Amino acid sequence: MAAPSFIFSILLLLQLLFASLPHHRTLTSAADGSWQLLQKSIGISAMHMQLLRNDRVIMFDRTDFGPSNLPLPTGKCRNDPTDTALQVDCTAHSVEYDVFANKFRALTVQTDVWCSSGAIMPDGNLFQTGGFNDGERRVRVFSPCRTCDWNEIPNGLTAKRWYASNHILPDGRQIIVGGRGQFNYEFIPKNIVTTKINLPFLSETNDKGIENNLYPFVFLNVDGNLFIFANNRAILFDYVNNIVVKKYPMIPGGEPRSYPSTGSAVLLPLKNLKAAAIEAEVLVCGGAPKGSYLQSLKGTFMAALNTCARIKITDPNPEWVMETMPLARVMGDMILLPNGNILLINGAGSGTAGWEQGRDPVLSPVLYQPDNNIGSRFEVQNPTTIPRMYHSTAALLRDGRVLVGGSNPHAFYNFTGVLFPTELSLEAFSPAYLDAKFDKLRPTIIASKSMSGIRYRKKYTIQVVINSNKVDESSVSVTMFAPAFNTHSFSMNQRLLVLGNEKVTAVGNSMYNVEATTPKSGNLAPSGFYLLFVVHQGIPSQGIWVRLH
């Protein structure tokens, strides 16, 4: 296996040499941003990732990988006679990472969490659902505390959920949509509806023998309905009455964007929240062309898609607008940043999701600026040196960095003799707004207890310090971010609300009072924990945790 490793090293060197050069006419400036290796190994590969309200990140891979590189506490083992790899396992397959201490501890999952889903409930607890084998109908709960561990609810799901997507609803429940062989949805907790409900759209978007509709992209629209995207098209869905409200046109070209032809998607930042009619837009980027999945099984790796499709989902007659990325990407992640930009990160330049089915790692993130004109929205950023292929993850942190982990395109832990060894490391990408040259523009929030619990449709005053000589009121904005459950290139429940500002008042000693009004309903922002930022000339403060009721 020496020859393939040598070839990969040469390819990696060439990509690093050219990563910062213009790849497409839409590139607008030189590469930016920086990388930091946080942990060489956390013992597991971070296939799933969720930031909690105590600045810990929960990560896990799967129980049937065999033994990990992180032992459970002395004397503790997982006994699972149904496990397909190891029935008695004294190693961890989940960790809790302390962001600001840069430390981690082992957690115990009892059943297989492979390719599962989840979301944070309004009380701040992580509810994680499904998986494989004995985990396919489990609901697992993790509460944010220094000594907490996973609790599991057997048969907490009505249907087997593997490769499903979750979203928090305005009433505090989670909806769980789809999964392999599941053309339906259900809710947790089961205090209102206890059964699964058929959703024909999922069977209509299923490509026989390939699927291309797993991990559907689900977003809560501003009218309370759900935008559900699978394969190459979408619907607006009234989940209360089980009615398709609208069918959106197919993305031009009809190329698949869902697993295993995995692209990514994001609900663009919601703005003008006091308006009678609030606009909502969805951006879908990357994926793999038709035929790519089957070709990759034969050892032929087709180039990934280099396009994004953007649509105003609230328009009466919506149409997709196509844009060209500077770098083609499959299995990439899309992360909302506090200033309203989007970071495209991780993934490959050819192939698809699946065991050994991706090639040509895309080492350079790309910044997407949604408010710029078409043709000037993309900026290639500085590259990492670590390929993040299938089963990679990313999550925004409270300090504005993006945590990156995972990558394991193998059926087990595999560290030698392969193109892309199982990756156990954690990195952080720091967008350009964290550069020291912007320190004088960066707001510092003076947190108060009155901000810890906030109500809908209420005006609040946020006090900040800005050491700039002059602060232009129009350049100050308040944003709220809902941390996402990230896996398989989709950040479930991710949401950024731009509250703007109603008044900025100087109070002396570089201190300012910023007035902003919270969203008017749970359709815009379901109740729960959010990160609140103050942004000045595109430079965000460190966030503070707030609970919206």
Could you characterize what this model shows?
This protein is mostly beta strands. The protein has two domains: 34-434, Galactose oxidase/kelch, beta-propeller (Methylamine Dehydrogenase, Chain H), CATH 2.130.10; 438-548, Immunoglobulin-like (Sandwich). The chain is 5% helix and 36% strand. The chain is built from three helices and 44 strands. Strands 7-6-3-2-37-38 form a six-stranded antiparallel β-sheet, with no helix packed on it. A hairpin with a 4-residue loop joins strand 2 and strand 3 (56-60). The protein is globular, with a radius of gyration of 22 Å. The chain starts with a helix and ends with a strand. 51% of the residues are buried. Residues 1-30 have low confidence and may be disordered.
CATH architecture descriptor name of the largest domain = 7 Propeller
CATH class of the largest domain: Mainly Beta
Total number of domains: 2
Total helical segments? 3
Which assembly state applies to the chains in this document? Answer: single chain
CATH topology label of the largest domain: Methylamine Dehydrogenase, Chain H
End-to-end CA span: 57 Å
Uncertain regions: pLDDT < 50 for 5+ in a row?
1-30
> What's the pLDDT, averaged over the residues?
93
How do the helices and strands line up, and which of them pair or pack?
Elements: H1 2-18, E1 34-39, E2 48-51, E3 56-60, E4 78-79, E5 88-89, E6 94-98, E7 103-107, E8 117-120, E9 126-129, E10 139-142, E11 151-153, E12 165-168, E13 174-177, E14 184-188, E15 197-198, H2 200-204, E16 217-220, E17 226-230, E18 233-238, E19 243-247, E20 264-267, E21 281-285, H3 292-297, E22 307-312, E23 321-324, E24 333-336, E25 342-345, E26 348-351, E27 358-361, E28 366-368, E29 378-380, E30 392-396, E31 402-406, E32 426-430, E33 444-446, E34 453-454, E35 459-465, E36 476-482, E37 485-487, E38 490-492, E39 495-500, E40 503-508, E41 511-517, E42 528-536, E43 539-540, E44 544-548
Parallel strand pairs: 34-44
Antiparallel strand pairs: 1-32, 2-3, 2-37, 3-6, 4-5, 6-7, 8-9, 9-10, 10-11, 12-13, 13-14, 14-15, 16-17, 17-18, 18-19, 20-21, 21-22, 22-23, 24-25, 25-28, 26-27, 28-29, 30-31, 31-32, 33-35, 35-41, 36-39, 36-42, 37-38, 40-41, 42-43, 42-44
